[in-house]
Design a protein that fits this description.
The protein is an all-alpha fold and 275 residues long. It is built from 13 helices and no strands.
């Protein structure tokens, strides 16, 4: 893209501000007023649009996701290759274009800075998600998965996760239950991969992990299993989440979560002979 094309696109995007500012300037100061008014109208229109974009629910969620992910990656003093690969993998799974990927990387790098205060992105996000529990759950899930990308939760990561949950009014009990589900989900995913590579190796352990994915005990009744499955599927419904403020680019993440929940339920259902 050339500079001229970029300027042309900007002028077109902010044409309303240009026109209004130019007209006001024309009537108050002639040709010189036209130029000054158009310039002022352009800058005011651009500033307003940036403000709207910054505080748009989906943009808030997107920015907070990668800033907090960066903060978590640096929580224990250094960012590991595994954590960088996980962040890149998330961006790839989201199928981000060049501009959005650059934005995600910038947010991740911003979050890594020692002086970065996560409250600046979590406060507006908390207000957004006050009555959107499924959206809050999705956000914490993404951060937990990022923190567990290297296979463990360090004390520093646990402390930061507690701060994040406090900001979002997500209780410690909820976080612990979610962490248990995420661990079971990781194990279930690994078992599924082994079964794909070596058919017939899906073990009893994977059935136990399937219960963990749903957050229920193997001793739970069929009705309790089905209730847990329905609740989780509703919480991870991509269209519902986007309507509540999940960036459309993250629909794929919600779909993958829903697919794993469904796979876990299907295995339990087959093992129990449920309809």
């Amino acid at each position: 893209m050339t500079g001229a094309e970029s300027l042309g696109q900007q002028l077109y995007r902010h044409r309303t501000g240009l026109a209004i500012g130019g007209l006001i300037g024309l009537f108050s100061g002639g040709f010189v007023g036209l130029l000054v008014g158009a310039g002022l109208g352009f800058w005011v229109d651009r500033a307003l649009r940036r403000g709207v974009t910054r505080y748009h629910p989906q943009q808030l969620f997107f920015r907070a996701t990668f800033c907090v992910m960066g903060k978590l990656a640096k929580a224990d003093g250094r960012v590991s290759e595994t954590e960088i690969r996980y962040a890149e993998e998330v961006m790839t799974r989201m199928n981000l274009g060049d501009e959005k990927r650059r934005e995600a990387i910038d947010c991740f790098n911003e979050g890594k800075q020692p002086a970065f205060d996560i409250a600046q992105v979590l406060r507006p996000l908390a207000a957004l998600m006050r009555h959107r529990s499924a959206l809050k759950l999705m956000f914490v899930e993404i951060q937990l998965q990022a923190a567990m990308a290297d296979g463990e939760l360090s004390p520093a990561e646990q402390t930061l996760l507690s701060q994040i949950c406090a900001q979002l009014q997500f209780t410690q009990a909820e976080m612990q239950a979610l962490a248990n589900r995420m661990r079971a989900e990781q194990a279930f995913r690994e078992q599924a991969w082994r079964a794909h590579e070596q058919p017939g190796t899906f073990s009893q352990a994977s059935l136990e992990d399937a219960y963990g994915v749903l957050g229920v005990s193997p001793s739970a009744s069929d009705a309790e299993v089905k209730k847990a499955w329905r609740r989780l599927m509703s919480q991870h419904h991509p269209d519902k989440l986007v309507a509540k403020g999940l960036p459309e680019e993250m629909m794929q993440l919600a779909k993958e979560q829903a697919q794993e929940i469904q796979a876990a339920y299907d295995q339990i259902r087959r093992a129990r002979g449920m309809r």
